[in-house]
Design brief:
Blueprint lengths: L1 H33 L13 E5 L3 E12 L5 E11 L8 E9 L12 E3 L3 E13 L3 H6 L4 E10 L5 E9 L1 H12 L1
Antiparallel strand pairs: 1-2, 2-6, 3-5, 3-7, 4-6, 7-8
Length: 182
């Protein structure tokens, strides 16, 4: 009878272990099908020149974001970081900030957003040039540069920081500036 009990316990533990392994595999497949919360960056609209003052220019663009997963996620914080050191560009000081297009905030504060599954929103990025010389000189000597866009995302997985590098072509900003002057 002792051997019979050991055999039954072993068989029972084996069945439980198999059920756990199959359950784990099934859950992994379901989660894999839902996808992980990611941001799919579409092409941004062309840069526009919004404000032209004597020594200041403001440019903006809108970048659509899309949640193409099967789950909701929250963008807690989004912020740009310019990759244009003053050693490379001495004609002016550039600043960058962003906001959700549906908030119209002017203070550079990112208001957290829940992005439901299969929906879209957009991020508006602003570039502000405070020219140290003339705006003409600052724009003519502008090199291409990058903006790293960082975001803190919270979803099914633990929160994490992701980023994407956006290249800004100086020629595109000059075109926007010239269109804005007219």
């Amino acid at each position: 009878m002792d051997e019979e009990w050991k055999s039954m316990i072993f068989e029972g533990m084996t069945i439980i272990l198999l059920v756990v392994i199959l359950g784990y595999a099934l859950i992994r497949q379901i989660l894999k099908k839902q996808g992980n919360a990611t941001i799919v960056w579409s092409q941004h609209i062309p840069w526009t020149s919004q404000k032209n003052r004597d020594n200041q220019l403001v440019f903006s663009t809108i970048i659509p974001i899309k949640n193409d997963t099967g789950i909701d996620f929250t963008l807690i914080d989004v912020f740009p970081r310019l990759q244009l050191p003053e050693e490379q560009y001495k004609e002016g000081i550039w600043r960058a900030w962003c906001r959700r297009v549906d908030t119209k905030r002017q203070d550079g504060y990112w208001e957290a957003a829940i992005l439901p599954r299969k929906t879209e929103n957009a991020i508006e990025i602003f570039l502000v040039l405070d020219s140290l010389k003339t705006v003409d000189t600052a724009m003519m000597n502008l090199p291409d540069f990058s903006i790293d866009l960082y975001w803190l995302i919270v979803c099914r997985n633990p929160q994490r920081v992701e980023w994407q590098r956006l290249t800004v072509a100086a020629e595109k900003l000059r075109e926007a500036w010239q269109r804005g002057e007219k």
